[in-house]
Each structure stands twice: as C-alpha cells, then as structure tokens.
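Hi V.,

You were right to ask for the full record rather than a summary. Here it is.
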Amino acid sequence: MEASGQVEPVTLIAGAAEEKVETAPEALLDAAKEPATRNVVADSAMVAAVAVVPESAGVVAATEGETKKPGAAATIRLEKKHPLAIRWMHWVNFPVLFTMVWSGLLIYWNDSDNAYQHPHAVYRVGVGSLTLVRMFPPWFWKAIHAPYRVTEGLGYHFFFMWLFAINGILYVPYLLISGEWRLLVPERRSIKDAIQVTLVDLHLRKGLPPQKKYNGAQRIAYSAVVLMGLGSLVTGLSIYKPTQVHWVTTLLGGYEMARWEHFWLTMGFCAFFVVHVVQVVLAGWNNFRSMVSGHEIVPAATATLEEERSAR
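Predicted structure:
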C-alpha cells in the first residue's frame, strides 16, 4: 500500500477530533507531510487524536463494550456486642465471686465437721431424719484444706463482700441507664426459646430459635443471676448483722432460715458457673473474644444490636 493512502484516514480522524475537542499538535501534522516519515507520523497522529477525543465520541475503541465490575459484597462484619463497662464488671465479678464462694466454704466447715457430730441441717438434702445427700463429705473438706480455717474464711469473706456489693450496685443502674436491660430481661417467648435451646444442647432436636444478643435461655439465666446476687447480699447482711438489721432477718424467716437461703443461693451460683463455662467453650472463640474486645464477627445480613437496643 502507498504511503499517501495511509495518511488520508489520519487526516479524517484528526479532523473529527478537531470538531469535538482540539487538534493534534501542529508539529506532528507538519511532520506528517514529509514522505520519508509519513508512516511513523501517521501512527503518532492517530494516537494523539484518539487520546484527546472523549469516550462519548465513540472514537476510543479500546473502551468500547467495557463495563465497570462492582466489588464483591462483604459477607461478614464486626458487631459491637459488649460495652466496656459490661466487660469490666464481668471480669471483676469473676474472681470476686470465686473468692466469696471459697471463703464461704471455709466458714461453713465449722458447722459441717462430722468429727464433732454437730452437722447443720443446711448441709444435707433430706426429709426429717432421712438424709439423701450430705453436703459435703469429709473428703471434700480435706481436698480444699478447709479444716480449722474459719477465721481466715471470715476475713476474706467480709472484705470481698464489699467489692461484690459495689460491683452489683454499679451494674444494675448501668443496665437501666444505658438501655442494655432491653437485651437482657426475658421476653414473652423466652421460656419457649429456652426449652428449644436446652433440647438442642441435649441433642434431642435440631435448629436453634432466632437469637439476637442473647437467646431465651441466656436471658432467663442472666436475669436470674442478677436477682440471686441481690438475694445473696440481703441474706448475707442478715447473717453478718442479725441484731442491727433484725427486721430483715425476721422477714427472711429468722437467722437459721437466712443461713439456709444464703447457702442455696451460693450453690446456685456454683451451678451457674459450671454451666456458663461449658456453654462458653461450646460457643467457641468468637463468643469469648467478644467479652474481651467487645466485638463479635457476625454475618453481614444479621440485624445490628443497635436496632435491638432501640426496638422497644
């Protein structure tokens, strides 16, 4: 093909570009007239012309038919689950409550020592003179090195009870003021959900009920623990100062009944602690991490907890 036949299309393209935006540099057009360099300049002029013409002009063939591909949608997200105050009070309460239970056992040994044949009725399950379960057998007291440490137990118990009380007094108002109580207190369907969750845990059925921050079983258990904490403080105070708060001791059924109530509330805390730890292990690292960092990884389509907090 002749060189003159190759320059003509360039002139047409450059002209079209001229009408829409601007022409190619004059130096390139002048150089295109020289026969020895027509082919080279023609290519350069074509590139320049294409470069300055907008895409809407339909000149840039390289972008023809191309569409912008949307980015992949996220399938998970970080959910802010536990506020800082909740996490602090949770982790403070754990060692405090453990120390309270341990020191309480050191105190209770004084009435459970079988060597002196004066076991208190609090430490057994039975009817009349019939005893079904002894609480606790001699080997248990020896295992925790409880004998003759009553005064030590009293010292620890009376100190940590103030920490336990302060933590609880801060926790309840925080729930009310922050609105976290909405996620904690049981709902109308909580009992039904709790039964379903229990059946799933026992492998008697499949499929958990819909869950938000807490399921029905958790709502009932965590709300019960708050009430148990209040009961422990009231019964403990009536035992600690039976004369000064005699009217409280009387309302509880007397000193002996207050001890009975205090003891079984403690056993309730122990049972809750065991079940709670097992459930945390079964729930996995993601759930445990949320009580440390405050955030949990959840599916992106899951409703946010902020919606639940403002639902009522």
